[in-house]
């Protein structure tokens, strides 16, 4: 049985493009030390998961695949998946988290332009990953000028994820999302990025989410 689990796990990892495989490792950092994850190849990551989550590695992987938007792989390999309360629903149930001292005003982009409150759809991690994959080399300019993030924080993100631009972009967007909290909506992010120098496909993608 353990062998079947390992074979399935390896096939799932091999089915991921490199960027999503790196995204998988990034999203596992809360459960496995980054020092083990970052240099791990696909077979090595399988071994780590089997050791850390004996008998449960496929379920853990399925949870990460859902965050990456790869429900097709969950279905193809018939992976077990626990039902979880979506982040946006949990926030509605528990109420807004207390605002911490020093947090900038939420709901506004740099320049004081409020986002249009036309669509309350909150951004999920798979949405942020798809935006991250489209951001170009001007990601720091986007972060500083259009998302209002500190340059020092962006440099820290780069140091924590060496040689992986997609993860720089993804973590930058998550930093913005953490700051905005419940106001990190699709329309809010689109408003912030509207005048940035970036791939027009990003705005088209966010527009399509608004139409969901």
TrEMBL record:
GO terms for biological process: regulation of apoptotic process; signal transduction. This is CRADD protein. It comes from Donacobius atricapilla. SUPFAM superfamilies: DEATH domain (SSF47986). Residues 4-79 form the DED domain. It holds the Pfam family PYRIN. SMART domains: DEATH (SM00005). InterPro entries: DAPIN, DEATH-like_dom_sf, Death_dom, DED_dom. Residues 147-194 form the Death domain. It comes from the Eukaryota.
């Amino acid at each position: 049985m353990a062998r079947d689990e390992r074979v399935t796990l390896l096939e799932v990892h091999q089915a991921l493009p490199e960027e999503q495989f790196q995204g998988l490792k990034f999203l596992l950092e809360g459960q496995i030390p980054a020092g083990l994850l970052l240099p791990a190849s696909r077979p090595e990551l399988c071994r780590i998961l089997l050791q850390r989550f004996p008998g449960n590695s496929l379920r853990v992987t399925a949870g990460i695949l859902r965050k990456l938007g790869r429900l097709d792989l969950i279905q193809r390999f018939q992976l077990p998946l626990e039902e979880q309360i979506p982040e946006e629903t949990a926030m509605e149930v528990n109420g807004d988290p207390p605002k911490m001292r020093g947090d900038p005003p939420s709901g506004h982009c740099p320049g004081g332009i409020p986002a249009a409150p036309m669509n309350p759809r909150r951004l999920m991690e798979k949405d942020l990953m798809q935006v991250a994959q489209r951001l170009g080399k001007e990601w720091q300019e986007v972060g500083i000028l259009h998302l209002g993030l500190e340059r020092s924080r962006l440099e820290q993100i780069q140091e924590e994820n060496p040689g992986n631009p997609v993860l720089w972009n993804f973590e930058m967007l998550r930093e913005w999302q953490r700051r905005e909290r419940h106001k990190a909506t699709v329309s809010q992010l689109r408003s912030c990025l509207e005048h940035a120098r970036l791939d027009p496909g990003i705005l088209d993608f966010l527009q399509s989410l608004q139409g969901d």
